[in-house]
Structures are given as structure tokens and as C-alpha cells.
Amino acid sequence: MKVYRGELEHPIVFPESTIITKENLDSIDFNKVVYCEVATTGAMGNAGGIILYLLKDERSLVTYEINIKLDKELFDTTSDLIKQHAGAFIYLSGGYGNSVLIKKDLKLEIDEKYKCFWYHSQSTKLRIDSSVHGVFNSLVARMKSINDDKSKEKKNNWNGN
Fold this sequence. Notes:
Blueprint: E1 16-19, E2 33-39, E3 49-57, E4 60-67, H1 72-84, E5 89-95, E6 98-103, E7 107-111, E8 116-120, E9 125-128, H2 133-149, E10 157-159
Parallel strand pairs: 1-4
Antiparallel strand pairs: 2-3, 2-6, 3-4, 5-6, 7-8, 7-10, 8-9
């Protein structure tokens, strides 16, 4: 059984995942990051972890990941690079030591059935999974609160502007 991307009827392509290393860190284009999670060492779920979702092209995402247990210096360097680019993102709390940064003006569809977000590129829908369901649930609550605060109509869409 294949899983399809909504109305486009293309099989879902889950992002390839790459561990961040000293050799590939410089190749990460932070201008292409659409979603980022940073978890403190005491966080619930992905403790001491960083996940970056980058738009590879209009049809696919790639993730880069690091955990403080693998390489503390590299975790700190990656964290510093995220802070340097923080102006391009909306910060949301993922709860319990988890921070999430979502690219400004990015529209995400909330999919509560499958506990994921869908990014609508110009040609397709791309799936973004939070590290754990607790982060997803915290984000959804915060996104809906933001939409309510802005008096937007209640839909399962979020526009981070």
C-alpha cells in the first residue's frame, strides 16, 4: 500500500536524513531551512537533539540531525549557526525544553490525524514530522492560539508571519 500526497497522487517521499558532521556542516544552507527543532539536554523526547528540515528542491526535503551525546562541540556550533539565522524564523515553544523555529511566512497545514505538518511547495506537499508527538501537540496548540489572537478564521492552516 502506497501513501499518497493528497490531491497530487504522488507517493510521499520521506526526507533523507543526514547526521551533521564537521565535514558537512559548512554545506548546510541555512537559507533553505524551513523547520528546526532544538532540544536541551533535559528536554522530553529528543533530549540534546537538533533537527533541521531543508528544502532540497520543490519536490523534496532533507533533514540534518545532531545530538549532544554524539558531539557536544558540533552541537554547540550548530546551535550557534541557528542563532545567527534566527531572524528568518518564528520561534515557538515545543514544550518541556524543546524549541521550534519555523521559517517566517511559511504556510504549514496541520494534520492532526497523522500528527505531522504539510509544507505546500509550488509543486507538491511535503511532510514534516516533529521529533515526538508532545512537540507536535504543543506546536498545534500554540499555532491555533496565534491564529485566534490574530482573529484569523479557524482552519487547519498556519501562516507564520
